[in-house]
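USER: Fancy drafting a protein?

ASSISTANT:
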Amino acid sequence: MTTETTIDNQNEKLRQLLQYVSANSPFYQRIFAEKNIDIKSIKNPADLTQLPFTTKDDLALYNDDFLCVSKGKITDFVTTSGTLSDPVAFYLTDSDVERLANNEAESFRCADGSENDIYQLMTTIDKRFMAGLAYWMGARKMGAGMIRVGPGAPFLQWESIQRFSPTVLIAIPSFIPRLLDYADANGIDYRASSVKSIICIGEPIRNSDFTPNELGKRINSQWNVKLYSTYASTEMGAAFTECGEGNGGHLNPDLIILEVVDEKGNVVKEGELGEVVVTTLGVEGMPLLRYKTGDLCHIYYSPCACGRKNARLGPVVGRKQQMIKFKGTTIFPPALFDVLDMVKEIELYQVVVSKNEYGNDEITILLPMQLQTAVFKDMLHSLFKSKLRVSPAMEFVTAEELTFRIYKQEKRKPEKLIYI
């Protein structure tokens, strides 16, 4: 449900976008010509079905053909994370960086933030990572403080918390149990800290029905802080952020036209699962039309209890490219993570997906050597069987080796999942 003002605003921004890419994007100029598309016939988001989807393969194959300005106008050069393929370049103009700042300021406000907050950034702001820049710019735009600590380094995280008294952490949620274990081991009273909430990025903290998943439960069983989930990507240059109700990430209709579609490309109904498709509004450098993210989410069109009326996305169930067919069962990696996060003894793990000699998917869980007991293996085997009906293989390595595998210096995020 959206207001008439929002609809009119989106229609006008869509008209401007189509004219802009028609005049400036070599990729979309070619698509419009090949498909004989008259952009004047596309007057509102419903008419976007006249256009083909833009895919990740399109971006990889014709990367610079999406660029609508000369490289002399580029202010910031970033790349996608390259989780499943080589990273793709994205070019941001000064206007695009300002758009990022506006998005993140609005996202922080959605997550009950204000200029009185101090944010502690536990993700990288370098390594061509768009999100780190966006968080810093958003806090600056809102007038809030920001402590740029970066990933890992529990000692420095707690030293910063104790010295500067941040109220909000921005973190990959699977790092938080490690942070709390460090605090327990070093006599730090985290329950008495200044931190009141955590903005969780990169991993879900809720199930599809918005109840806390095992990682969310694990954090809140130890620490009484408010958790806010977010979903974003480099390609969309925007975020879907939860409000205090915790019932899905809110769409910012000024920045994105959202579609959630089934396998046939049809828009799914309230509460149904589909692939997230975005059309980016207000982007100058590399705007996208009907970009298929590969992420599978449930969509909610009904108004939120907070009063916002725009669409909401549930947590990412998985990526289409990450669907694993294992012993006759379809599994997405978050389901594996959820089982592993149930076990308090497991502080580190990595899921390895490979192909056997017959081309079938195989799953191996790498775990710390100290857990290699018959009792533990039987317990984890039974837990996987009860939750997923199948149990992957287990391999035990030293904690040092596992830490090295997961937290690689050249990577922007922990590698909890790898394909070989």
User: Anything to note?
Assistant: The chain has a mean pLDDT of 92. The two ends are 44 Å apart (CA to CA). The chain is about 30% helix and 25% strand.
